[in-house]
Amino acid sequence: MQRRRFLKQSVLIGFGLLATRFPTWAASTFAQDYPKHNIPVDKNIDANWLRGLRVRGTPISYLKSRNELNYIGMPVGGLHSGTVYIGGDGRLWLWQIYNQTIEPCHEGIDPKTVRWDDGTSVREIRSRDGSAYVEPAIAENKRVLDQGFAIKVIYKGETFIKELKADHWEEVIFQPSYPISLITYKTSEFPVEVQFTAYAPFIPLDTESSSLPATILRLEIKNLVNEDLEMSIVGWMENGANRFTAEKGKGKKRSKVNDLERGKALLFDFSSTDKALASAQDAGTMCLACHTQDAYCIADFSPWPVSSESFNKLEQGAAQIEKDAGEKLVGAILLGSAIEAGKSFKADYSISWHFNNLHPKLKELVKDAQAGYWYATKFKDAWEVNQYIASKWDYLTTHTELWQQTWNDSSLPHWFLDRTFVNIGTLATANTYRFASGRFWGWEGVGACPGTCTHVWQYAQAVARIFPELERDLRQRVDLGVGFKQDSGVILFRGENQTHPAIDGQAGTILRFYREHQMSSDDQFLKTNWFGIKKAVQFMLAQDKNGDGMIDTPMENTLDAVWEGEIAWIVGLCVAAARAAEEMANEVGDKAFAKVCSEYVTKGRKNMEEQLYNGEYFIHRPDSVQGRKKLGSYNTCHIDQVYGQSWAFQVGLPRVLDRDKTLSALKALWKYNFAMDVGPYIKTHVGGRPYALAGEGGMVMNTNPKNEPKPYGENVTWQLGYFHECMSGFEHQVAAHMMAEGMIDESLILTRVIHDRYHAAKRNPFNEIECSDHYARAMASYGTFISACGYEYHGPKGHIGFAPKVKPEDFRAAFTAAEGWGTYSQQKNNGQQRHTISLAYGELTLSSLSFELLNAGEERQVIVHHNGKKIALKAEQLNNKMLIRLKTTLVLKPTESLKVEII
């Protein structure tokens, strides 16, 4: 409610800012008598639909003919370089690269307020509260820059010209597989078909190559007729330098033709004697390049729409042109070729940008932002970005496409692969930055709530597995750096943008330290940071005031309130963090502290299971003095109640909670919190933000199945609104846990209803929304993929393991490790198991492996081959797992495989 306070006191982020999550209607809405629980026990799920969730299926396609293209916006820029979307018909849009994204000036992808009928009243919904969920941004309304392609074909003496846009073709098919989109254009009785591929270089483990402020655009024109054709392609781009600040008479836009070793390029810039324009947020350069021989450039391209005259003019263009700041300047690159019958012609383009004048308020907020972006320390302008891309073209394109092929070479359903991976695209939006110092920094959602918030980002499992360098740096530079209190061990949950910790953020970050250690090639990360990690753990343990192993110090959590008492989800998360700390202590040889952690885990687990389990699910026990005066979850069914055990699965820890009680809690969440249609619930339980609407499925955050009066405490506060919402990041966390525990149907259903909420017919499939757009917590979705693979990894120990949950008898999926990635597969045939680890990129060091036995109880023999050579080993059968220790450590290289037979 105090939005201006953020601008005046940006470093004093506290409850004043957090309260902006809900407008003033919240308190009065929550004051009414609490409604009856009305989520049906019978989920009314069609059996055929359920069976179909496990089917491999076909790649996802969104079609013009089904009206599915309007909202599509897949990020196709490099990590932390702003947001550039590829639309459903292949045109780029949004262009959130101009350093405008700052709360509240330009928040989210479409900073508008909309009106939403929640079933009882019409409310105003802001960008940070989900306006883009109610009314998604439409690509046609957000085309900041003029950009596109057109083809000219001469067929049977007639000239045909079509732009690559929806209304020029009978059918346009958008096939997404992040980071790559494939768009196909078709028209009956037309002599060619066009396939258009767009992406930014994206190579897991190679953060630098994946962080270029650029987009690659690849075209293939297929001759469908039985005769040769004459064909031309033109790609054009508007000069975007000083896009918003350039005014008539105040400077010159310039377009200049440059040569490449293979192709041509156009550099766009802006010149002015006005110093303010040179330092404006939109001051910078852009570059359009064609990386194909025999390209021809024109610095000024018109008229519109594209016509034969436009193509003819391309052959007469000047090499450089200037126009007044008030005029539009568009440059273009032409390619022409004859295409033989049945053959194809291919052309490669790229667009790069360089805008290094960060928003002044961001510079006030984060000291590291004052020196600009990381990419600007590598390149002085867009031309240098383009030259780098040209010099590394083969590596960048080959390995990006290799990753996509590796990811999709899987037995898992296409829809599942899409939904569990797609949120990594958050890194390629204006939600994240990498400053000149190398520091990685992010909002919670685009432009909303700063400081790479620990209690949000700790849910995000994707970054550490795909770009582990970023998470390791964040741990050291922020969590044990600018956001760390050396004397107390406090991790400030928004770095320098906060003055106190959040207990769940503290515990989750300890678990992240263990994960980052596992995703390292050696133990230097752990050894270097152990002193600080230990201090952080000691602070967490000290919050158990009565010594029963259950945290009881009132402290803020991710639901933006200070809860009193012993809260199951916080207790369990801290137990899991202490268990991770025990492992780390043992690895560095700190046996005394390992014992302290072990004793805490034993005590905390025992008391949590005995005192916070109500026979069906885990609860929040009120403070003995305060009682239920303040907000809490108390006897209600809370979505994160067994989150600690969920985290334990992600990092291969032994169980930290009893399996039967944990399963009971997950089943209670399914029974009481999940609905295939949340409409009836949100109509009666008003006050939440609209992240799932009537007719859509989801898991509600917190429900009151016992129909207690005042279930969340005596005092009504704005944070209560969270309890009535479906926030996808929390839902993904539960889906990951359910998958790991063997509740496979429930996990798939929950993941699928999220996927369906973001179907392209309704909203942008690439933008999961919570507090603003591209919300970081949604990257918890990758955890469900980890669980589906039963994946465990410890780089310093050279250990890798798999225990697939979906079709384990014939399974295949991608994996990433500290220094390489590839494909894992396993098959079961006549009681025998075959396991193969194939490397596609980097290297993989292996000393031990573990696999689930699909026929437990029998004595088995193990044979391992590497490059056709039998490997000496020691095998140990532990219940349903086979642990294999190699007598000599192996290092797999690209194209090599390790084959294991269990017979």
From TrEMBL:
Segments forming domain Glycosyl-hydrolase family 116 N-terminal: 73-394
Signal sequence extent: 1-26
GO molecular function term, any single one: hydrolase activity, hydrolyzing O-glycosyl compounds
Segments forming domain Glycosyl-hydrolase family 116 catalytic region: 504-782
The name this protein goes by in its record: Uncharacterized protein, contains GBA2_N and DUF608 domains
GO BP term (any one): carbohydrate metabolic process
Domain of life per record: Bacteria
A Pfam family that the UniProt record links to this protein: Glyco_hydr_116N
Keywords: Signal
InterPro entries attached to this UniProt entry: 6-hairpin_glycosidase_sf, 6hp_glycosidase-like_sf, GH116_catalytic, GH116_N, Non-lysos_glucosylceramidase
Lineage: Bacteria, Pseudomonadati, Bacteroidota, Sphingobacteriia, Sphingobacteriales
